[in-house]
Amino acid sequence: MKILRVDHIGIAINNIDEAKQLYHDLLGLNHAGSETVAEQKVTTAFFPVGDTEVELLESTAPDGPVAKFIEKKGEGVHHIAFRVDNVEAALEELKAKGIKLIDEKPRKGAGGAKIAFLHPKSTHGVLVELCERE
Ligand code: CMX
After folding, report:
1. Is the minimum distance from the CB of 101 to ligand 1 under 6 angstroms?
2. Cα(88) to centroid of ligand 1, in Å?
3. CB burial class (10 A; 0-12, 13-18, 19+) of residue 98?
4. 117 lines ligand 1 (CB under 6 A)
5. pLDDT digit string, tens, across residues 51-106
6. Residue 12 beta carbon below 6 angstroms from any ligand 1 atom
7. What's phi and psi for 29, nearest 5 deg?
8. Cα(125)–Cα(30) distance, rounded to whole angstroms?
9. Which fold has domain 3-132?
10. Confidence (pTM)
């Protein structure tokens, strides 16, 4: 398996429109687009930075995972996503090496990416996403 880059850093936010004031108006980043991933009860907004991106995450429902994360820990860094060339192969390899997986198979993330999460218990408390894009 080869990690190609940090694809994005996901940040849990109460209100994306308010957070845009920081990321766009103050930091001067370009808002490249937003997308709701209904299945994961989250709306995303992407801000490219060099060859990676900041992904703001706002829950679409009070019982969504991002809402629950904010309830427990407050707003802040939610996950780090590593771009890999082949998510299925990476999951297989990491599982064989004893890493606990949240997703045994990839699911669909924002922008049509294939994504899968590793269990934070195996990654020193950080939610790690593997991400493959065309
Ligand atoms: N950081 C650290 N730990 C986290 C975490 C986070 N962001 N999210 C969950 N955990 C922990 C939980 O506390 C739990 O720990 P325990 O087992 O000790 O209780 C464990 O990880 C499993 O969490 P869970 O909520 O019980 O498990 P689920 O399978 O229901 O959901 C997950 C896991 C990560 C998929 C879900 O919590 C989540 O965050 N979903 C949203 C995914 C997302 O951000 N999608 C955005 C679009 C995708 C894209 O980036 O393109």
Report:
1. no
2. 19
3. exposed
4. yes
5. 999 999 999 999 999 999 999 999 999 999 999 999 999 999 999 999 999 999 99
6. no
7. -85, 150
8. 30
9. 2,3-Dihydroxybiphenyl 1,2-Dioxygenase; domain 1 (3.10.180)
10. 0.96
